[in-house]
Structures are given as structure tokens and as C-alpha cells.
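Hi there, hope your week has been kind to you so far. Do you reckon you could talk me through the fold, stretch by stretch? I've dropped the whole record in just underneath, so have a look:
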Amino acid sequence: MLDVRRLRLLRELAHRGTIAAVADALAFTPSAVSQQLSALEREAGVPLLERTGRSVTLTPAATALVAHADTVLAHLEQAAAELAALRGAPAGPLRIGTFPSAARTLLPAVLARLARDHPALEPHVAELDPAQAADRLRTGDLDVALLHRYDFAPAPSAPGVQTTTLFSEPLYLASGSMAETAGSPPADNPLTAHRHAPWILATPGTLCHTMTVRACEAAGFTPTARHHIDDFTAVLALVAAGQGVALVPRLGIADTPPHTVAAVRLTELPLARETRLAHRAGAAPHPAIRALAQALRDTFAPDVAPTAGIEATT
């Protein structure tokens, strides 16, 4: 019989690439991980790892076993979810990972709703970069995570993780006096009018950064970055101060001070950002996860938009 915990280690090795990375993620020692994988090889009866010096690669048998491990672990998550549903109303800890703009604009109301409707549930929130979510879900550090994807920067799929779309929001081009192009001929793409302007981008490597760069490239130019800022409230403040132009989602505008929004020209673009709820494969029926998903959908109001300086593209 194959040990499920050892199968989990093999799956993590397939994803992370090194025994040291697996050990670090799961708070094991590298020698303990190696011992467990050696025991799994004995259980399987075939070589699973090819060792060359300090590096290891998976054999074809190990690759096939990883696919089965994904299925087995998903079924175990589903079984746990069904047992939790039989116990009754959602209760106990629920560890939630979230990106910053959702933490500021959505989660306070969501947590209040959960406290009212499911008082036995104990949400614990941690802010994180969406790029970290899949790893932390698989290792059990989180139960659910809020992720986002953009039209020009879809999030890659991750083994052992499933996502559900909660809602979609438009993106806006935020510009101020420094980026105004008075006297320029109208452009089919509003981004084109700002091809020579300085841009405020997110940190390189993030989906927000990738989205802006690719959207500009689709408009025929590469943006010139002056600042790299991840907080949308700070981004809009810099735009208002004439420091450049930027792309921001609706949630990034929702909690910005009204005087800042009033000082910024916002043009709604035919681009969107989706917010998704991610969890381990098979865990979707868990009553705590279903309660959180419903509270998020009930809380987000898609008709709530900034009220000052809005222009819409045609």
C-alpha cells in the first residue's frame, strides 16, 4: 500500500524541483524528505528518482505516480468536505489568503457577514502575493485564497488547485495633468495617446505589472516605467501629482480618498480583472468554503463605480 503522505512529498518534488525546496516548504529536513521518498520507492517497487550528485529527477514511473497522487489527494479533500457538511453549519478555523485591494475593500464586509451568518466559523486572513497561493494551499498553510487574473495576464494553472470565478471588474486608465495630450489626434486605443508618458507600474514579476506591459504592447508601444508601486491608492495619488499614468482596477479605486479620485482622469477600458477563489482540488463542497464564496459574491457590488472624472471608451 502506498503511503499518502509520501505521495504528497513526491508531488511537491515534481512541482518544486529539489528536495531542499520541498523540505523548506513543509518544515522538514532534507534528509527526512529523502528517507520518505526512499520508503515510497520501496513501496512502489520501481525506481522513482534518478540521482545525479545533489540533484534528482523523476523517472517516468514517478511522473505517472504524481498524476495518481493528484487524484487521490483530491478525493481525500472531497471526503473531508462531505464529512464537514454532515457535521452541520460551518465551524472552526478557515485560513484565507488575499491580495491587498481585496483585503481593504471586500474582506471587512465579508468577515462581518460571516460573523453574522456563521458565528462558529473562525476566519484567519493573511495578505499574500497571488503567486504564492498555490504553494501555500497545497502545503495546507491556507484553506482558500483570493486570486486575480487579467485579460492580458492569465494566471497559470497549478496542480492540485482549483479556482472558481467570483466576479469581474473593469480596468481604468488613470491619467493626470502631466500625461495630458492636448492637441493630439484621437486614438482608437486610449493607451496610445499616452505612449510617450511616464508610467507607474507594479513590481516586475507580478500579474499587475505583466498586464500593463502587455496591454501597452498590444497598443503598439512599450511603457516607460518611472515608478514601481503595488498599492493602488498610492498609484492614484502619484497620478494626481502628475507623476505618470497607470492602469487600475475598480477595487483599486473604491477605497481611494474622494479628493484624489476627483483629481484624476479615469477612462474605462474594454479590459477586465477577474477575482477567483482558489482551494485544494476536491475541497469545493466544504461548507466553510461555500460560505465564504457566497459572502464574497453577496458583498461585491458590480454597479458601484468611481463617480468622478469617468470616461468610457466606445
User: Anything to note?
Assistant: Residues 60-86 form the longest helix (27 residues). Residues 132 and 139 are 11 Å apart (CA to CA). Residues 181-186, 303-308 have pLDDT under 50 and may be disordered.
